[in-house]
């Protein structure tokens, strides 16, 4: 029997939520190209699609917006818990603990409901913004009653109305971060939910998985590369020096996608649309064109295309998010996918119970 590590290639579940095809460069959300949704739709519309299986009509979208805006208010008990946590505790641990402590996460809450999914999605940005500001000695900012999901997140972080281009770019990033098949954190959420634990515990489990650097690591290395390049004129000499020394250009190549990463393609479109608003977008576009040309020359046949982290770095830098908020922001997006998978798991539930191959010593025969 061939040895399989990390469950690679093993089908653990059937799902209607998304399709990831690395060979073809496909990312599909419930029958829709994710890259088109990111450019043409709002965060709330795509979240509705993942939870309810279809895009909302105007009435459904309006009611969802009302529920999400009402759900942004953090319970006093969770606020007190966050205030009691040491200042040096990393954001992802704070977020994991706060989600687990949300009122309503009792065993009686089986099966999970779409309303709980909406509540979690609304609250995660509030928790992140509250912790970020109080940790800096700033007054927390209450949710804005009229802003959409991405714009409100920026507003609560900064205390001022966000630039429209920044909110649009962040919306695209959040949509493309919502869902990506049976990744490690999604699997973690489904395993926890399969025990008939509650949705809050399942998402807390997923956050614990996301904070590992092999999964939720931020695109900080791409940002460092772009900062080192500095100006478009420096792109080619700097990148040539990296390649000639045997190094790798950060933000190119992907474990799953062997052709163009559809998430990167969508974020490139957003970046091109907004390039005139931010110098960092102009630099990213020039650096990408230069890198692709050099990679074709230095590493022919390797199929090293731009991955999502490259343009995510450009967008997160442009909207002026500090590096410590990159993974929490990714988490705020992926909460939609986790909860959608948990709702799906509850509908066909059977507890996950894989086998393991024993490789330890055996007792002496006859004893």
Task: Please provide a brief summary of the model.
The protein has 16 helices and three strands. With 367 residues, the chain is mostly helical.
Provide a descriptive summary of the structure in words.
This protein is mainly α. The chain has two domains: 31-214 and 325-347, Citrate Synthase, domain 1; 220-318, Cytochrome P450-Terp, domain 2 (Cytochrome p450-Terp, domain 2, Orthogonal Bundle). It has helices at 34-40, 43-52, 58-70, 76-84, 91-100, 114-135, 149-158, 164-177, 184-194, 199-210, 220-229, 232-244, 262-274, 279-298, 308-318, 326-347, and strands at residues 18-21, 26-29, 32-33. Strands 1-2-3 form a three-stranded antiparallel β-sheet. The longest helix has 22 residues, at 114-135. The model has no long low-confidence stretch (mean pLDDT 91).
